[in-house]
Amino acid sequence: MSKHIAFENRDRFIELGLTIASLRKMRGLSQEALAEKAHISRSHLSAIEAPNVYRAFSVEVLFNIADVLDVRPGDLLNTVYPDSRT
Questions:
Q1: How many Å apart are CA 39 and CA 83, to the nearest integer?
Q2: CB of 62 within 8 A of CB of 73?
């Protein structure tokens, strides 16, 4: 997997991280607890959730996080962007 994130996807990764952080807090989970259950490091989750950082991650990690948060993976991606063309 390429470590380079296309500039046009930067905001998508940031929004996804904010969505994950919000759901995690609503579920009463710490970063440590979510990371452990999703089989990733706490520092990786912290980078995913950080609003000033955009961290690419695998679909497998997305699936694991969705499972722990008890949502469908697509629900994490189903954010409406101001410039979306639906």
A1: 34
A2: yes
DSSP 58: -
Count other C-beta atoms under 10 Å from residue 71's C-beta: 16
pLDDT of 35 strictly over 70: yes
Closest CA to 5 of 60, 67, 62, 48: 48
What are the residue boundaries of the structural domains of the chain, listed by start?
A: 7-77
What does the pLDDT look like over 14-31, one tens digit per residue? 889 999 999 999 999 999
> Whole-model pTM above 0.85?
no
Domain covering 7-77 assigned CATH 3.20.20.140 in the classification: no
Cα distance between the two ends of the chain? 29
